[in-house]
Prior knowledge:
The protein is α+β, with helices and mostly antiparallel strands. It has 10 helices and 14 strands. The strands form 3 sheets. Strands 9-11-8-12-10-13-14 form a 7-stranded mixed beta sheet, sandwiched between helices. Strands 1-6-5-7-4 form a 5-stranded mixed beta sheet, with helices on one face. Strands 2-3 form a two-stranded antiparallel sheet. Strand 13 and strand 14 form a beta hairpin. Helix 4 crosses helix 6 (185-192) and helix 7 (201-210) crosses helix 10. It is globular, with a radius of gyration of 20 Å.
Amino acid sequence: MEIGKVPESILKRAVFRQLHTRREEVLVGASVGEDCAAVQLAPDEVFVLSTDPITGTTKNIGGLAVQITANDLASAGAEPVGVLLTVLLPPDADEPLIRQLMQEVESACEELHIQAMGGHTEITEAVNQPLISVTGVGKVKKGCLITTGGAHNGDDVVLTKWIGLEGTAIIAKEKEMELLGRFARTFVEEAKGFDKLLSVVPEAAIAVKSGVSAMHDVTEGGIYGALWELAEASGIGLEIDLKAIPIRQETVEICEYFRLNPYQLISSGSMLMTSPNGWKLVHDLRQAGIPASLIGRCTEGKAKKIINGEEEACLERPKTDELYKIYT
């Protein structure tokens, strides 16, 4: 395609016709010529905004972009309402690719009941692969906002599902043929299917009702990065039991094969939470069918300790996500 805005005829066919999910709060949505979206909130509600790009993969980036942004909003205790998309495509992109991306976006929006409210789609030589950046809009009742920096000394630390879900799914798709030379197809397909576990919206809603002091979705930098960020934002220390951190066998073996540290692997699908009563939170989550584990506690001071049996180590500052090593 030619450099510049995607032509209006293609926008109508490949973009707007793919978007069907609607929210009553959205007064102005995606349309030709509209540069802004408009959202109506109740007097006792506040906006929650988040933005994220997808750069670590080319597989299902439309769905991932919406899901990750929805997770960010959910970690604040907010209900996701809509998304704004900036889609940058290389000159060799065609209309079927645009349609596929928007179908991925709409599939995620429909599942999460989120409206794609607008955005911008452009062909540019500044990128060599499709790039989607998403701004999410959510709402939360006044006084109910949850932050990463809300943890207190003495709180329990709880983790949902398993670490490394997103990274494992991405690696299994990007390196499928190589992995099939080492592992059974059923093993690889199971790992690829981890992308169906990436939403933390349900557990966030349960956690808000159960009583949480802080929430942080585990994304780039893995569980080690998320723990560091939560502790720094809250001004507390940590004592974390390494053996209590849940991890799937598929993640363990794939990380061993590529010599990756699973504790520093992008882990969307897992929510890090703190609560004055961690066992109650774990119980409430499990009652709803969501796996959850108590992995440690918040402590006074700044020390961030990872305990592995009789061994003890200090948590280091977040490093570059392990995912990027598969591309080098």
